[in-house]
Amino acid sequence: MNVLEVSGLTKSYPAFTLRDVGFTVGEGRIMGLIGANGAGKTTTLKSLLDLVRPESGSVEMFGLPFFVNERRCKQHVGVVLGEIDFYRYKKVRAIADVTRRFYDSWDETAYRRYLRTFSIDPDKQVRELSSGMRVKCMLALALSHHARLLILDEPTSGLDPVSRDDLTTLFRQLVEDGTRSILFSTHITSDLDKCADDITYIKDGMVVESAEKRRFLRSFDFLKETDDSAPLTLDEIMIRMERKHYDISASV
Asked: Which terminal CB of the chain, N or C, has fewer other CB atoms within 10 Å?
């Protein structure tokens, strides 16, 4: 079963257009959404969540048309879009007090368990937390209403290698039982090497490829410059695609 199906998503701005974006996220899977800065990753996530209104396209979550079942679907979605600097002087406890009001299935016991697991002091202000701890704080909030789908925008950006490794390990643990799925955008492809099952690559507002990771890597064999049998890495694929001007519309 797919927990998320995106088809034909289009959103236009004066200097940028997201064009006909489509992909699926399977149950119990981690989908990495990759692309250079400005490629359309954040616009894709905001469009499929109706945080910005797309001009066309459809989104299904948990088998339901999302745009007409938005409140129902969002009860089962955990979202982390950037840091929480706009609450810098609020205590973690106060942020949780506000957040729990929005979810019918908020689980206070689970929330306290995640605070312990992530070593988060609820009486600390956000400004007192490191970047890694802020991400973990947002994850604790997202997980405490039993979200079936986590949508994360650049969750490891700005973190040190140890914190990034901790988070990617956590992502794998979260999907182990098959009841949760994760969609997260990143330009740090080494994180996806560690945890992703599937990859969607966006370039200039269009999907170049979306597939299971091994099949995804093999689909870029045409970029190889030698007869080496090993596939290119995600880093190599992005570097070669971004530096050369391919007509990507032919491969979509």
From this structure: N
